[in-house]
Every structure is written in C-alpha cells, then in structure tokens.
C-alpha cells in the first residue's frame, strides 16, 4: 500500500438536510470510517431542527451548476486533480487527488463554492449553505479510486434531480 492516498472521496451536505436523529441513521462528530450509523431518533431530530439557524437548504439546478463550476475552478487553481464531482440537491460528492489533507480540501471546496454562490446572487449572504464538516475517505488503491468514481458518476439516483423526491 502506498504511503499517501491516491485520492480522496469527499462528501458534504447542505445545511439542515440530514440532522442527528435522521431516519436514515447518522454519525456523530469523531465517528471513524466504517463505524455503523447511529439509530434514528425522532426526538433528537426534532430537537436539532428546533435548534437550527434556518430551514434546510436544497440546491436548485442553477445552484448545483454553480457549485460544480466552483469545485472545478478551485481544483484547477490549486493544482488538485478533480476526478469526479456530483452536486445533488442536498449533498455534494467529490473524488479529488492532490497535495494536502482531505480536511483542507473539503473546507476549501465548501468555502469557494459558497463565495461563488453568493457572488452570482444564488445564495443570500445570511444563509448558511453547508453542514459542519463532511466525510473524508482515503482512497489507497486504484480499485478504491475506481469504486468512488463509479459511485459518484453512475451510482447516484437521478429521480431527485428530475423533480422527484428521493425515497
């Protein structure tokens, strides 16, 4: 196995779209990769929704295109290789290779996407677009990279983006 990963599989969610307690399961801060999701809790989800600073954000088609462009521009600008990107209405998947920690990459991509959304008047200045942190999976082998690429490019259900709600 190499000393450094070949790439990273980064995922970040739109604000308020997957709260602790969610019926799909959830992870807490500090959860390690491979840790099972926590059990759903309606009470916890309701409490977290009550503490939210605004409604959940769902990206429309123009916002999704803007975020995708921002990610491509950021990667190009800092010398990272963008292998795959899929901007959904409630989350973003990126497969990227380059120097630096995946946490730094994740934060940079979120920051520049936010700037571009606001710069194009697609997001009000007082609106928070992203949930805190995200997922940073290390891709050590070509097989890992291929699997992440295939998931991002081919493995996402398209019904939600066509106006149909996701199950």
Give a brief description.
With 167 residues, this protein is α+β, with helices and mostly antiparallel strands. 35% of the residues lie in helices and 16% in strands.
Number of strands: 4
How are strands sequenced across the largest beta sheet? 2-3-1-4
Principal-axis shape equals: globular
Structural class: alpha+beta
Integer tally of domains: 2
Distance between the ends: 38 Å
Stretches with pLDDT under 50, minimum 5 residues: 162-167
What CATH architecture label of the largest domain applies? 2-Layer Sandwich
Helix content: 25-40%
Averaging pLDDT over every residue, what do you get?
83
The succession of helices and strands, N to C, reads EHHEEHEH
Query: What is the number of helical segments per DSSP (H or I, 4+ residues)?
Result: 4
**CATH topology descriptor of the largest domain:** Alpha-Beta Plaits
Taking the sheet with the most strands, its summary is: 4 strands, antiparallel
Strand content: 15-25%
Q: What is the CATH superfamily label of the largest domain?
A: Transposase IS200-like
Radius of gyration (CA) equals 16 Å
Instruction: Report the CATH C-level class of the largest domain.
Output: Alpha Beta
